[in-house]
Amino acid sequence: MTPSPTNHVAVIGAGPAGLMAAEVLAQGGATVTVYDAMPSAGRKLLMAGRGGLNLTHSEAMPEFLKRYGEAMPHIAPAIDAFPPAALRAWSEALGQPSFVGSSGRVFPNAFKASPLLRAWLRRLDSMSVQLALRHRWIGWDADGRLLFQTPGGQRAVDARATVVALGGASWPRLGSDGAWVEMLAGKGVTISPLRPANSGFTVAWSDIFRDRFEGQPLKSVALSFGAHTVRGEAVITRSGIEGGAIYALAAGLREAIASSGQATLRIALRPDLGEDDLMARLSAPKGKQSLSNFLRKAAQLSPAGIGLLQEAAIASGVSLSSLSPASLAGLINAVPIELNGVAPIARAISTAGGIAFSELDADFMIRPLPGVFAAGEMLDWEAPTGGYLLQASFATGAAAGRGVLKWLERRIASGE
After folding, report:
1. How many CB atoms lie within 10 A of CB 288?
2. Nearest to 156 by CA among 146, 167, 164
């Protein structure tokens, strides 16, 4: 059945931002259809929940909002209107209460995304929200109707208003392929280039190191770049390094590589040991032990950590065994890793860049396209993992939904 255009709102994208916009719109009395190119809704949400769905974070709001960097002034009003407490209450109302983990991250008690998504889709169905799947948006026709490519051919749809929530360009096989950039740019919308965020980086590992330590974790380390230091974990990959602590520094590392072709990351393998304590341990007699065994026992270093020390020594043209205890202690807590590239955007967790906030009004409407609103990762913001990504996606989706309702009210009041 073709929806009536009288108060029909099209939401394009069935991810967290789009589905939240649809819920707010349906609650406000709009007739809503959610269109998505994939055969099912919420595919990237399900992927995000594979290791535990990190809904949001319990951090105090001033610190929480700082995670959005330069985009904070634009993102803050949406999050203030739909803060972490509201997101947790929303999840609980869907039968999915949440808990705060030891790191301050917030997860549903079920830990997975699938129970939450199933309950959410049931609620949307009860609100008469329609899902039109396998509908790939390809722009507008000459009459301003939305055009979709479907298994049955092209379909034109009338809508009083539209919310676009198509994500960035990471994990394109899940539906976010960035194809919308060309369509919106063609309509005069200013878009910051899409770049990988929360991504890994490439390193020219030696063949020996790569073959031996690919997939090995670096646990309880501290990573530093410039003035920023992050505690956490990282993982050695065949082509470089990735992991939560890396993602937290990704924006600065990415920009440094873009401007100079490389960035030096420093890793403290034993950040809880002071240099004097570490030096005292390394000054103990080594006896007949190999250097690797000595470092494993004296400094409690993992094999991967010892391998990193060997890589750094080779890169600087020295022998690790020739270093004094003081030099070795200094190296252990500041191992330099030369990053020479960024992992491809298709492998990134999220995307930086997108629709410039200067193109949006306070209600998330795209100024050059009256009646078209945008939300989620399509907007020009980025944040580290830890719940900040989903929180902003949900919050901007809700804000775009409220914006559409206000816009429809004004049009009805003016007789349009």
Report:
1. 7
2. 146
Question: Do 256 and 364 fall into the same domain?
Answer: no
Q: Among 310, 342, 374, which residue terminates a domain?
A: 342
Buried b (16+ CB within 10 A) or exposed e, 250-281: bbebbebbeeeeebebbbbbbbebeeeebbeb
Q: For residue 319, is it within any domain?
A: yes
Residues 189 and 207 in one domain: no
> Are 360 and 240 within one domain?
no
Is there a contact between 236 and 304 (Cβ–Cβ < 8 Å)?
A: yes
Rounded to the nearest angstrom, the gap between the alpha carbon of residue 200 and the centroid of all alpha carbons in its chain is: 12
Distance CA 42, CA 34 (A): 11
322-373 per-position pLDDT tens digit: 999 999 999 999 999 999 999 999 989 999 999 999 999 999 999 999 999 9
Rounded CA-CA distance 17/23 in Å is 10
Cβ(339)–Cβ(257) below 8 Å: yes
Q: Beta partners for 223?
A: 230, 267
Looking at the 3D structure of the chain, how many domains does it have? 2
Mean pLDDT of all residues in the chain? 95
pTM of the entire structure?
0.91
Handedness of CA 239, 241, 244, 250 (dihedral sign): negative
178 and 29 inside one domain: yes
Helix, strand, or coil here: 133? Answer: coil
Domain residues for 236? 201-342
